[in-house]
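Hi all, long-time lurker, first post. I run a small reading group and we've been trying to get comfortable going from sequence to structure in the token notation. Rather than ask abstract questions, I figured I'd post a concrete chain and ask someone more experienced to write out its structure so we can walk through it together at our next meeting. Sequence below, copied exactly:
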Amino acid sequence: MHLTWATIAAAATFGATLVHVALGQADADPCAGMVASREYLFGGGELYMMNASEVLGCYNSFAVTPDTRKLQVEALKLLLAFYPYYDIEKGSTSPYYESNYDLGAALDNIGASDAIVNEFDLQTLIQSSLNLLYDAHVSYQPTCFTTARLVQPFVLAAKFNSDGPPTIYVKSLQDETYYFTAGDADMSSRLSDGLASFYGNLSWYVGLEVTEINGFDAVTYLQSVADDLGAVKDRQSRFNRVVARAA
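-- Answer (accepted) --
Happy to help. Here is the structure in token form:
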């Protein structure tokens, strides 16, 4: 039996998100009302469960003006004076890592794009532009947009074949409650129960092959996700970061 991500979405309402909200959050925050209305509440008022689309709507509510967008990009470009590989990345050839990426030009394009009207899109594009350096020394994490974590219900693994592309399959169910509970057994148990209530019984998916994700070939999609993570120059090594080893 083959499995597509679209099937998962229909069967399991794929895309639950847990959100950590600081107790001192201002009432004026556009996200505060969404959090206050949630029925799923864990951990003494700090952890909430909601759909990813709701979180995205919240993040997109923070508008950015053209002037502010340009000022943020220009401020970031000032740091390039301290980045020793800036010119090398623009024109590196064999026998060294081959690169033809102009980070300055990429940032200029972001600063000039009037299509960017909210802070989340701005910060996401800046992060992606820096990730394309594939340099483990460079990290850009806009912490104001890391209060939510997408909880994947599955661990995906790859079986590498000698005569073709790897096979992607569901290796096991994913339990990510330890990211939020810091060793609190009671809180971890309640969180696991909440995830099970949200997703339902997914154990029968374990072992099935994943052929498509979001309408794309599974291997192609995962490689695209891996490439956008940055940090590692070797493409195969990047791919290995997003899949588990086959049993």
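A couple of things your group might point at:
The two ends are 19 Å apart (CA to CA).
Residues 185-199 form the longest helix (15 residues).
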